[in-house]
Amino acid sequence: MRRPSLGLCQAVRVFDRVFAAVLLDMDGTLVSSTEAVERSWTRWATEHDVPVPDFATVHGVTADDLVARLLAGRPATERAAARRRIDEIELAEPGPVVVLPGAREVLETLVSARRCAIVTSAGRALATMRLGGAGLPVPPMVTADDVSRGKPAPDPYLAGAALLGVEPADCLVIEDAPAGLSAARAAGAVTLGLRTTTPEPEADRVIGDLSAVVVEADERGVRVSAR
Questions:
Q1: Which residues are marked as active site?
Q2: CA angle 112-172-197, nearest 5°?
Q3: Contacts of 9 (CB under 8 A, 6+ apart)
Q4: In this structure, is the dihedral angle defined by the CA atoms of residues 89, 25, 119 and 133, taken in order, positive or negative?
Q5: Are residues 160 and 209 in the same domain?
Q6: Which of 97, 148, 174, 212 has a 20 to 30 A CA-CA distance from 29?
Q7: What pLDDT, on a 0 to 100 scale, did the predictor assign at position 59?
């Protein structure tokens, strides 16, 4: 069952409790590919004669949704070609991918215990390339290719929980973007927000980045504690 969405005034225990699994966003949570993303979308926007997106407001939104938004009113065939084009640009120009503080330690711990999945708005090829470029392990993933509705709809995080065979309410979602945190709340998961993108993300608990926590995982589940 989904856990009802809770407002910030209702405290939800995040630290020192046992979760069945952790669902992690990728960009802004584990790695930063901001330079590559902004360069790719700026090139794409110039080619398609549209304004460059306001990156602060579209972080965490799928390419499908962003293309549809920016090319609203254009023929479906043009939108489909434009969607393929951003994939071509991003895959051809991966750019620097920086591992964010604490991310490697947390991810390696969770992957070793088989207690996590990545839930990303990137496509599978791009997500795999960025994780591999950063030298990070690649756990089970839900990508933009796997769901018909991306974040902020709950579908990606519901799919992530199902992929691991656990209930969404028994999952901790670690996210940085407003769209992703909205998706996690709608799915009924507990949320840990990172300030890597938004100064004060709306989450059950907020930290600077993953270097602020210690993660322990074993056959009983996952426990996250403040460092």
A1: 25, 27
A2: 100
A3: none
A4: positive
A5: yes
A6: 148
A7: 64
The CA distance from 81 to 44, in Å, is: 12
The per-residue pLDDT of the chain, averaged, comes to: 90
Global model pTM greater than 0.70:
yes
Q: Angle at Cα 156 formed by Cα 154 and Cα 159, nearest 5°?
A: 105
Angle between helices 34-47 and 76-92 (to 10 degrees): 140
Higher pLDDT, 116 or 9: 116
Q: Is 109 a domain residue?
A: yes
Q: Is 86 helix (H, G, I), strand (E, B) or coil?
A: helix
Count of domains observed in the chain: 2
- Name the range with the highest mean pLDDT among 50-59, 66-75, 99-108: 99-108
Owning domain of residue 72: 34-92
Question: Do 122 and 47 have their domain in common?
Answer: no
167 vs 160: CA distance, rounded Å: 10
Do 16 and 84 meet the contact criterion of CB atoms below 8 Å apart?
no
CB contact at 8 A, 113 and 59: no
